[in-house]
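User: Before I run my own analysis I want an independent prediction to cross-check against. Here's the chain; please return only the structure tokens and, at the end, one sentence I can use as a sanity check.
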Amino acid sequence: MSQKTKQKKSKKKLRVEKREQAMIEGILEGSPEGIGVVVIRLECGCRKMAAVSASGDPASKVIIYRDNAQSVCDKCKEDNGAYMRVSESFIDWVEPAPDETTQREICRKVLGTAPVN
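Assistant: Structure tokens:
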């Protein structure tokens, strides 16, 4: 792969991360009790996100979206972003973030015992 191709892919990834961060900030703005946002990236490029409370409960509605698209992909419309198609999942914590033990407990409750990273 040429250097130019690598740079284009790197720039594209950076843009995606910026858009994702903007969505996270928007979700938190509408969810005052949220201490973080769960981000679930799917193989198809769609993402599911929702704010999470200090008890690990939902603090917002689940939002599913796809960068630069009018709507989510047909597969996500069909199965609502099935967990079997998850490529990565994590929680983006609000600063100051909860302590490590609390983070692990919330992650376990929200993402299960074997989150995909």
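Sanity check: The mean pLDDT is 86.
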